[in-house]
Amino acid sequence: MSALDPRLSRRQLLRAGAGGALGLYGLGALGGCTVSRPIEKPESTAAVKPEIDGDILLYNWAQYMDPDIKKRFSEKYGVAVNEVNFDNLEAMVTKLRAGGHYDLIWPSTEYAFRLQQEGLLHRFHRDSLAHADGISSFYDGGWWDPNNEYTIPYAYYTTGIAWRNDVVSGMAGSWNDLTNPDGAGKMFILDDFQEAIGEANLLNGWDLNTADPNQLEVSKQTLLEQKEFARGISTNSVQNLVNGSAVIHQAWNGDIVNVRNQVDNPEDFSYETCKEGVPVGSDLMCIPITARSPGTALKFMDWIIEPDNAAQNVTWNGYPQPVEGGKQAFAGLVKDEPSIDVDIEELGDGGMEYRLDNAEDRALWNQVWTEVKAS
Amino acid sequence: MSGATATGPRLGSRRRARRDEEGFDKPRFLRVYSWLVYLYLFVPIAVVVLFSFNSVKSLQSFRGFSLQWYRDFLSDETLRESLFVSLSIAAITMVIATVIGTALAIGLVRARTRWSPAANILMLVPLVTPEIVAGISALLLFSQLGIQLSFWTIVIAHITFSISYVTVVVRGRLASMGDEVEQAAMDLGATRLQAVRLVLVPGLWPAIVAAGLLTFALSFDDFVLSFFTTGEDVQPLPVRIWSAIRFGVSPTINAIGTLMMVVSLTAIVAAVLLPRLFGRRESGIKVLTGQEGG
Amino acid sequence: MSEHGFWSRFLLPGGLWLFLLFVVPICLVLALSFGYTDDLGRAVYAFRLDNYADAFDPLYIPVLLRSIGYALATAAICLLLGYPIAYYIARYGGRHKHLLIAMLVIPFFVNYLVRTYAWVALLADEGLLNSLLGDVGISEIQFVNTPYAVIGGLVYGYLVFMILPIYASLERMDGSLIEAGKDLFGTPARVFLHVTLPQTKQGILAGCVLVFLPAVGDFVAAQLLGGPDTYMVGNLIQEQFFTASNWPFGSSLTVVMMLFLSIWMFGYLRSAAREARDPVAAEGA
C-alpha cells in the first residue's frame, strides 16, 4: 500500500515536474522552426482550362451561395460539389497555408492579392470562360489582378450605416451618425478590425488604410468613445437589427436586404453610405495552387457568373454580383430603397478599398483592435 | 452497497420518500423548484421547435407556419453531410473513448504501481482544462507534425477530451464493486482475462453504457474542439452554424435541432417502454444512465 | 506475469494517449508562447519574453479578472440551481430518477449554438419575452448584450456538470444518516447543514471545479450574448489564433490563463486524488 502514501505522490509530482522540464529542454530544439510547414507547390504554372477533372471542394463563407446552384452543377456534370466554411478570411488563409486542398476560395481583393504574391493561386485565362463578357469593367485589370489571370468577382458590398428610421432621426450621411444621440446604447460597430478602424480613420480625416502609429492611436481613441456609446461589437448585424437590439448598426449593404426580408416593417429600415468615404469590398473567386480539380473549379466559376444563376444567387443571399444578370436582380431586390444599390462603376473615387500591404501594418492594426476590444 | 441498490431501490426509496413528505424536507418546494429548473433548460428548446416552423428566414420574428426549413434541410446536401459527420464523430468517439477510458478506470482501481498516482492526475487534468486550451494545443500538434486537418483530427481531439469522463464514471462504479467475484471466478479456473471479460465488464456494463452515452452527447454538442481541428473534410454541424454568423443563420438549424431532439427523446422513451413490454420491471433508463455511476 | 503487471497494462493505452495527445501538445503551447511571428505572419519557435510582457500588460489583466469573475458567478448560480435539483432527483425521484437524469442530457442534442440563438430570440429587445412584458404594460428591458446575459449563457451551458457530480455524491450517501441526523439535530435546516452538506462536499467541490474552470476559457457566450464590455479571455485567445494570426501571443495568453487556473486545479486534483485512493472514507459510509 506504499503507493497510497501521500508523500510518495508528492514525490511523483516532483518527478513528473522534472520530466516536464526535461521535455521543455527538448522543445528548445524547435527554436527557429515555424509551426506550419511550407506547402509543396506543383512545378507547372500552365494556365488552368475549364474542363471537368474531378470533384470539387469549395471553401466559402457560410450561407453565401444558394445550395441549389451547386446541386444543379453537380447533376449536370456528374461531379460532387462539396463545401466547407470559414468565419473570417484570416482563418481561411491559415488553413490554406497549412496545405488544405481546397479547389475554390472566396477571398477579398486584398487577400487575393496576398495569396497571389505568395504564389498560392492558380493562373487561368479569363477569356476561356463563356460568360466572362458579363463581368463589370471595374474588375478589369484591378490592382489585385492587373492581367485578369487569378480572379473572377463574386459579389461586392459597401460599408455604411443601417438605421431604424422610426426611432432615429437626423442622420446626415456621415460616420458621425454612429453616435447619433437617438441610438445611444443601441448602436453596434462591426466586429471586423478593418471595418472598425477604417471607419474611425475616415472620421478623423486620415487615409482609410493609414499605418501611421500616431494616426492609429487617435483612431483608437475615437473607437473607444464610440464603444462607450455602443450596445455591442458584432458582425451579426441582421439578427441585431431584426430583434430590435440595434437601431443604428455599421453594416454591409447586403445585410440590410436580408433584414428587410425578415421583418414586418421593412420600410422602417434605412441604409446610408457616408460622405467621409465609402469602403467597398469585393469578394472574388480564386483557385488555390493546392486544388485537386482546378479545371472543374474554373468551370464552376463560369457556372456562377452565368446570368440566370447569378440572378438566382443574388435573390438568395441579398448581395449584388457585378455580372450580367446579377446586377439586374439586385436592382430589382432593392427598388424600394435605392440607397442600398450602389453601382460599383459609378462609385468612382468615392469608393475605397481596404489594403494593408505588409505583415507589420496588419499586426499594428490587429494590435489596435485587440486593445479597443479589451479595454 | 451495490447489492442493496441492485435488488430493491424502488421499494426502499419510495417508503423513505413518503416518510419525508410528512413535512420534513419540504419536497413540495423542492419539486416546484426542480420543475422550474427543467423549464429553464427546455424553454429555449421550445423556441427552437417553434422557429423551425417559421415561414420566413428569421430566428427572431415568427410570422407563420411552414415546413420550408425541413424541406431546405432535406434538399441541402452539405447540411445533411454535416449532420452525418457530427453523428459519425460522436459515434467513433464514443466507442474508442469508452474502451480506452474503461481500461484506464480498471487500471487505476486495480493496479497499484508507482505510475498509478501520476496516471490518476493525468486523467483528471483534461476534465478541468478549458476546452479552448485543448483545442489550441491539438491544432499546434497537428500543424507541427504536418498532419492535414481532417475528419480524423477532430475525432482524435474529441477522444482525448472524452477519455476522462468515461474513466470517472466507470471508476465510480468499479470502486464500489470489490474484487471478490473475480477472485471466485479465478478460483474456479478462469484466467485473469476471462475474469475481466466474463465478470468485471458485465458488472460495469451500466456504467460503461452511461459513460458512452454521455460521451456521445458531449461530442455531438461540442463546438470548440471541432472549430480548432476541422479541416478540408465535411465540417461538423456546430462549426457550420458558427460560420453562418456573418451572412445570417437560417432557421434550418432549428429544424435540425428539432429533428435531433425528437430522435433522442424517442430513444429515451423507447428505453423506458421496451423493457416493460417485454415484462421486465426494471426500466431500461436505469441501464442507460448507469444507475449511480459517477 | 505478476498480478501488478497484469493490471498495469490497463493503464497503458489511456495513459499513453493522454500523454502524447494532451501533455505533449500543451508543452508545445508553452514552447510557442516564447516564440514570435515572422514577417510573413508565420509563427516561429524561439526564446523571447516579449509575449509575456504583452500578456501582463495592464490592459489584459482586467480581461482575465473579468473572466474569472463571470466564471465564479456562473459556478455559484449553478450550485444554487443545481444542488436542489440533484437533491430532489436523488431523494424523491423514485422510479423516475433515471428518466429525470436522462432529461438533463437531451438539450445536448439541440446544439449549444442553436440553443444560444434561441435565448437571443427570447430575450432580445423586441424578442418574445419583451413583447409579453409589453402586453402587461412593462416597458422594454435590455437583457442581451449585458454581463448578465453572458453569465446566463454560461450557466445554461455548464449547469449539467454541476448537477451530475452532486447527484452522484447524494446517491452514494447512506439515507439512514439523515434519519439519525433528525434525532440528533431536530430541524431540517440543521440536518441539512450538519449531515447532508458535509457528506456531499466532494460532489459540490467537483461540480464547482467542473463548471468554473471550463467557463473561464469560454468564448461562445460572450461572442453571442455579450456587449462591448464583456470581452473574455477566451475571446482574446481565440482571436489571436484565428483573426489576428498571432499564435505566439495567443499561446502566452493561454499559459497565463492556465497559471491563474492552476491554483484551483491543484486543489481539486489533490482532493480528487485523495478520494480515489480512499473511496470508502470519502463516501463516508
List its salient traits.
heterotrimer, A: alpha/beta, D-Maltodextrin-Binding Protein, domain 2, three-stranded parallel beta sheet, 10 strands, globular, C: 285 residues, mainly alpha, MetI-like fold, disordered C terminus
Structure description:
The longest helix of chain A has 22 residues. Among the domains of chain A are: 116 residues, D-Maltodextrin-Binding Protein, domain 2; 144 residues, D-Maltodextrin-Binding Protein, domain 2. Chain A is 39% helix and 14% strand. The N terminus of chain A is likely disordered. In chain A, helix 2 links the parallel strand 1 and strand 2. Chain A has 13 helices and 10 strands. By secondary structure, chain B is an all-alpha fold. Chain B has one domain: MetI-like fold (Orthogonal Bundle). Chain B contains 14 helices and no strands. In chain B, helix 5 packs parallel to helix 8. With 285 residues, chain C is mainly α. Chain C has a single domain, classed as Orthogonal Bundle (MetI-like fold), CATH 1.10.3720.10. In chain C, a hairpin with a 5-residue loop joins strand 1 and strand 2. The chains are: A alpha/beta (375), B mainly alpha (294), C mainly alpha (285).
Superfamily at the CATH H level of chain B? MetI-like
Counted beta strands of chain B: 0
CATH architecture term of the domain at 160-280 and 352-374 in chain A: 3-Layer(aba) Sandwich
Radius of gyration of chain B: 23 Å
CATH class of chain B: Mainly Alpha
Low-pLDDT residue spans of chain A: 1-9
User: Which descriptor suits the 3D outline of chain A?
Assistant: globular
Oligomeric nature of the chains = heterotrimer
Q: Work out the number of β strands of chain A.
A: 10
Query: What percent strand of chain A?
Result: 5-15%
**SSE topology string of chain B:** HHHHHHHHHHHHHH
Instruction: Give me the CATH fold name of the domain at 160-280 and 352-374 in chain A.
Output: D-Maltodextrin-Binding Protein, domain 2
Count of all domains of chain B? 1
Mean pLDDT of chain A comes to 87
Task: Output the structural class of chain B.
Answer: mainly alpha
The amount of helix of chain A comes to 25-40%
The fraction of residues assigned to DSSP E strands of chain B is: under 5%
Query: Uncertain segments of chain B of ≥5 residues (pLDDT<50)?
Result: 1-24
N→C terminal distance of chain B = 14 Å
Instruction: Please describe the biggest sheet of chain B, giving its number of strands, its sense, and whether it closes into a barrel.
Output: none
Largest sheet of chain A: 7 strands, mixed
